[in-house]
Amino acid sequence: MTNDHRQRASAEDRDTHDSSAIVFEGVTKRYGDGTVAVDKLDLTLPAGELTVLVGPSGCGKTTTLRMINRLETLSEGQLLIGDRDVMSVDATRLRRQIGYVMQHSGLFPHKTIADNIAVVPRLLGWGKKRIRERVAELVELVGLDEALAERYPHQLSGGQQQRVGLARALAADPPILLMDEPFAAVDPIVRTHLQEEFLSLQRRVQKTIVMVTHDIDEAMKLGDRVAIFAQGGRLAQFDTPAQLLSAPASDFVVDFIGADRELRRLALERLDSLELDAGLTAPRDEIVARARSYLQQAGSGGIVVLDEQRAPLGWLDWDTLKQADDRARIDSLSLKPWRHRLYLHDNLRSALNALISSPGEVMPVLNAQGRYMGVIDQLQLTRRLS
Amino acid sequence: MNNDVMSLLAGVIDFFSQPMNWQGPGSILAHITEHITYVVIATLIGAAIALPVGIGLGHSGRGGLLAINISNIGRAIPSFGVIILVFLLAGFGVMPVIVALVALAIPPMVTNSFVGMREVDPAVRQAAVALGMTGWQRLWQVELPIAMPLIMAGVRTSAVQVMSTATLAAYVGLGGLGRYLIDGLAVRDLAQVLVGAILVAVLAMATELLFAGLQKLITAKGLQ
Amino acid sequence: MNWGWVASNTHQITAALLQHVQLVGLALLFGFLIAFPLALLAVRWPRLYGPSLAVTGVMFTIPSLALFILLMPFTGLSMATSLIGLTIYTLLILFRNIVQGLRGVSPSVREAARALGYTPARRLFTVELPIALPVIVAGIRIAAVTIIGMVTVTALIGQGGLGQLFITGFTLSFATPLVIGFVLSVMLAVAVDLALVGIQYWLTPWQRGVR
Fold it and tell me: pTM for this structure?
């Protein structure tokens, strides 16, 4: 779909497609009053990747972002997109080729959602039919209800407005997308949801994305690479999240990532990268005497009881089993359910979280269909960390 | 006292019911037409001066505070004084009235259009830049439509004020509904004064309603 | 400009100026005394706001000249006539701004004051009014400046402050008194406006340096 669009795009918006890497060469931004927002920055943001700029407030991350589409003018150095110097291109033309999403959606209150999304295509002089089709496509792409297209921004929730902001930025299919704290203004639950959808969207569209945030968790979660800025507009480290965690370049980076950086590393790995333990299981129609002998043989404190579809019903521990009648079915006993469900695509941090509140010493892991795949225990996680 | 009021009202009704008051050059309709002509001309000239100033300053964001303060002081310019002064300088004619009314019409329109432009959400303004709109495109497609309700409110305030102040035209020998006030005052015919007052008030309120309707019509739906 | 006329008529000019100031000051005072309780009621019972605004709005559309003349049978060629008229014109502006100012106090501040145990009256005078002050003063400024121009019309019913100079100029076909009256009334407006800004600056120390 996006490929189609690239072929149909006019010469003007194709200019930057060939190479959309963004290169800062000794870029400095100094304001009139002498404050230096960005100090001799050398940085190459690879094409097709999502780079997150993160740092404490006043570190120059937003200024860095805004220099890319010339909302700020650089004082010194060179900023290249592909091999073109941004300062040599007409500013408005440049901006039409670069999507921009901001914290407060910045939607035009007097235009409908559809018209808001159509702004850049109109500026580029697309035909009516082509605009209409593109808008419909985008409404679907960002997961908006079609019925909202004729509404006005004030009739939408914050999360929906942010989706519209994203659709507007993507409208002319720009190869580059700039995002200034795009998820900061929505509540935490909506934010997590939007982040996840955004990640899957990026997997499909593969744009060069630069995102600013002050939230290190968001940076680690979303970024292919993360640039950590220190006060005074200096770059402290630019690396993949895994590298930042395992080889932080300075105390500042360690501090900024936080004391719980081991836990953060867990968040970067998924359960399916681990070899699960088969665990001890029994079908629900098993009788107590047999279950007891399994447990004794395995020397385990309990057993995972599965239903006919191999979905875990609950945890049966030794204390309960010990007192029960030999001939009773085990699903007539009191099984302890798990508060969390853990799937193969969950990360190890969620696994640890689930384990802590698990009634037994192990936590069952499910596949996408909810079937039992094995168990995970604390020992496995601890080994992973060292 | 009560008798006074009753005879006053009787006088008004009598005035309105006399056919000769409805025909010819000195008729009610003729005075209304003259009155509205002054108002329309003055408001249009005022808008042609005030709106570009207010909108331009609001768009660029420079020098606005000074302009607003000057414009607010402009409200203090006594229309009565301007009419007489220009009359002495330029002699008999529409000129004194138009000058005074234009001076009266300008301040509210400058202030409102400036404030309307400045009140456009900075995030929206910034989005327009970031999406690659040129200065003109931002002005016409984003800022003006959003500022329109306030701009129109300014025009409305001006028009209503001009409508009631245009009565002063009669003092320097011109027509309009002020004739009833000035002539009535001269001969102590209060019924005639009341006729003038009622007619002007009705016209002023009609102007209010007209602009309220117009404002609704041209305000983008998303802003309502 | 005939400075000789100015020199020989200083007395008349000063008297006109003083009467002008007096009319404006009293009209603002009475206007405020009426608009303030009305605004409090309209804030307390929002349903009153619409009708009050409509009534004051209609009164604002009556041409000032007509209003002054129509009051004459009741109050004659006295100061009361022009004072009543001028007061009526301040009402709309003052009422609207006082209501807007009080409504602009953020609910969380109001809530906090309540939680801290302020009585309603104390809350009004020590919390809400100070916060609403800038908007209220803005209203007084507009009302004052508008009235300063309008006073001159009352010259037609024998009052008028500086407006008397206009009539003198008109009857003598002589521009000097007109220019004097004109300049003085604009200067008066500037002075009153600056004074009000100063009072606001002095009363709202927390706003200094913020805009």
Answer: 0.74
